[in-house]
Design brief:
Elements lengths: L5 H5 L19 H4 L4 H4 L5 H7 L1 H17 L2 H15 L11 H7 L7 H5 L11 H9 L3
Length: 141
């Protein structure tokens, strides 16, 4: 082998991209792009769908803006720090968590919503084997 190395051998090779189909008849390459999802390509069916999907985020932004105007910059920063701390504390992955501390911080602890009645963990179909779920969470699987 000469002093120019392997790069000089590959210099004259033909790139693979020239053999790939392009244009309107190009096939979907599963190895490079993964599976296609029709759901991600659909537009919202109703104009309020995006608003409802982002309701909690919009409500939090409004509350933080109002809190900043009333109490200053430190109040929303402190509240966001508390939100992050509460979200990190969770039960084991195979146990249902009600996130009561997060509801208390948001002020939803006195409200009865749809998820409070129809979110019974004993009727859940997602219960898995505890050992497997913990190994997955710890990265052992």
């Amino acid at each position: 082998m000469n002093s120019r190395g392997v790069a000089s051998l590959l210099k004259d090779s033909i790139p693979v991209t020239e053999f790939s189909a392009s244009g309107p008849f190009e096939g979907h390459d599963l190895l490079r792009r993964g599976f296609t999802s029709v759901k991600s390509e659909l537009l919202p069916s109703h104009p309020l769908e995006l608003s409802e999907k982002n309701f909690r985020l919009n409500q939090d932004k409004t509350n933080f803006d109002m809190l900043r105007n009333v109490q200053g910059l430190h109040a929303p920063l402190k509240l966001q720090m508390e939100f992050r701390a509460v979200k990190q504390v969770q039960r084991l992955p195979f146990l249902h968590s009600s996130n009561m501390a997060l509801d208390t911080l948001r002020g939803n602890d006195g409200c009865i919503g749809f998820e409070d009645i129809l979110n019974d963990p004993s009727q859940s179909e997602v219960m898995g084997e505890p050992h497997t779920m913990m190994e997955y969470k710890l990265g052992l699987l």
